[in-house]
UniProtKB/TrEMBL annotation:
One of its GO terms (molecular function) is oxidoreductase activity. InterPro entries: 2Fe-2S-bd, 2Fe-2S-bd_dom_sf, 2Fe-2S_ferredoxin-like_sf, 2Fe-2S_ferredoxin-type, 2Fe2S_fd_BS, Beta-grasp_dom_sf, Diverse_Oxidoreductases. PROSITE patterns: 2FE2S_FER_1, 2FE2S_FER_2. Residues 150-183 are annotated as: Disordered. Residues 2-76 form the 2Fe-2S ferredoxin-type domain. This is (2Fe-2S)-binding protein. Keywords: 2Fe-2S, Iron, Iron-sulfur, Metal-binding, Oxidoreductase. Signal peptide: none annotated. It holds the Pfam family Fer2_2. It comes from Sphingomonas lycopersici.
Length: 183
């Protein structure tokens, strides 16, 4: 059974070693932030960090990653305050959001390797496909995240993206049929 470390937790997957890492993460570990996009390695929605490299998890098997350290979007920043995430939100980059986890993972690997990436370095590292067309804002956001990681400029850390689960739904009194008043 393949053994690896996922988000700093040792895991032994009781799955066929030929299973793509993507499906082990999504189905066995319930880490659904890593997305299935194309299954051919073309879109980048499934990118995770494996030992400091951006890897398309749909294209690598459990057997091939045995003994490695894997970081998913959930493990990168459980509270969603990684500088790349904050910079993308500040620049209004996310649209539908489907490609964003893969982009965040690829960008975080790039910035860890190159603290001052050029436009060309970003274009070379971020090969993800986005049907919403976020590219014009993406390069600037990644450069801003790199600047924040170098300590050159802070990023706003006020409101986290997303909704507090306690605020997502509230119980309200039932309405009296035919009126707009609670019973």
């Amino acid at each position: 059974m393949p053994k690896l470390t996922v988000n700093n937790e040792a895991i032994e997957y009781r799955m066929d070693p030929a299973t793509p890492l993507l499906w082990a993460l999504r189905d066995a570990s319930n880490l659904t932030g890593t997305k299935y996009g194309c299954g051919t390695g073309s879109c980048g929605a499934c990118i995770v960090d494996i030992d400091g490299k951006a890897v398309k998890s749909c294209q690598i098997t459990l057997d091939a990653v045995e003994g490695t350290f894997v970081t998913t979007i959930e493990g990168l920043s459980p509270d969603r305050t990684h500088p790349v995430q904050l910079a993308l939100i500040a620049a209004n980059v996310p649209q539908c959001g489907y490609c964003i986890p893969g982009i965040v993972m690829a960008a975080s690997v790039l910035i860890r390797r190159d603290r001052n990436p050029s436009d060309e370095a970003i274009a070379g590292a971020i090969t993800n496909l986005c049907r919403c067309g976020i590219y014009p804002r993406l390069v600037e956001a990644i450069q801003r995240a790199a600047s924040a990681m170098r300590g050159d400029e802070p990023l706003a850390t006020g409101a986290r993206p997303g909704i507090d689960p306690r605020e997502a739904a509230r119980i309200v009194p039932a309405l009296d049929p035919g009126s707009q008043r609670p019973r």
